[in-house]
Amino acid sequence: MSVKDKYQSVLSLGEKLETKDGTVAVENGILKVKGTVKTQYEKDILWDEIKKVGGEKPSDILANIIVDDTSVYHRHEVKSGESLSKIAKQYYGDPMKYKAIFEANTNLLSNPDVIHPGQVLVIPNS
Length: 126
Prior knowledge:
Elements: H1 3-6, H2 8-16, E1 20-27, E2 30-37, H3 40-54, E3 61-67, E4 74-77, H4 84-92, H5 98-104, E5 120-123
Parallel strand pairs: 2-3
Antiparallel strand pairs: 1-2, 4-5
Helix pairs in contact: 2-3, 4-5
């Protein structure tokens, strides 16, 4: 199995995230990838996938992932059935951090218990 095949799930995720200016090259058995993602959250999930495939400190991949918008952790489009606590759990691993999301979106939200599908919420840097 080639190193490119080994990390195909990472490359596919990069495409799904619409990584800009992406390059992929193999040199001396090392996969070199570079690209720009929209937010830190997208960078984090790419690194999670790299570690899932290659282990905690993979030696057969070099990734240079640049974040385009560092002012926020992510921008989340609300889906039916979601709540701020569910969204907080997804991004921070802690549903009680819903308050941080609410406070970052007071221009859009007046009540933390009322959100609507289609709203795009700022997920602030923690």
